[in-house]
Amino acid sequence: MEKEKIGLLEIFITALITSILSLGGSYLLTKNQLSEEHKYWEKRTYLEHIDKLIEKKTKLYEEINRQVLSLEVTAKDYKLLYAELSLTMHLCKTTPTTCDDLTEVNKKIFQKKSDFQQDLNILVSKLQSLSFLFGHRVESLATPLLEAISLNSVAKDDPSDLNTTEYEKFYNKNFETIQEVKNAREKLLNAMSDEINIANQYFFKNLHLQYK
Prior knowledge:
By secondary structure, the chain is mainly α. It has helices at residues 2-94, 100-128, 130-133, 136-139, 142-152, 179-205; strands at residues 156-157, 173-174.
């Protein structure tokens, strides 16, 4: 009888130990699985964030590029109108009838100047967004671009032409976009492109996690 009790006790203890070990192993396995699952979703969420960030950066890149190009066209029109205004004012001194044209030319130049300022304000708002999406290197290139655009709104004199008539001299200028704007625009866009490419490389390198 005593032996039977000892045998039952041994069976009970063995079953208890087996149960504890089984539960412990199951717990550790579940904990490990949950940990791996957590890491997976954490990285996947991060990748989704990177994907959205790339999209926003690319959109801002395109908007800034488009706005700078628009400003170049507006600045050229403004400089041409200013030359027309200068010529009209000159003619007004010798031919009074041309003075009537001053009002119309002034309206055109005022409207074009307004268009330029409006385009510039839009660009400034876009450039202010750089600090939220890009690093300091990209952000630091915004100021030189704005300074160059400001310089571009003034026509530069071309070398004098001895055969130029009195009237033609008002258009003997360079109305094209100055090199400073082209250089500043290129530097900014290249820096933005570099950051976008780095983010793209990381995203595609870890893209398999999206389909695990």
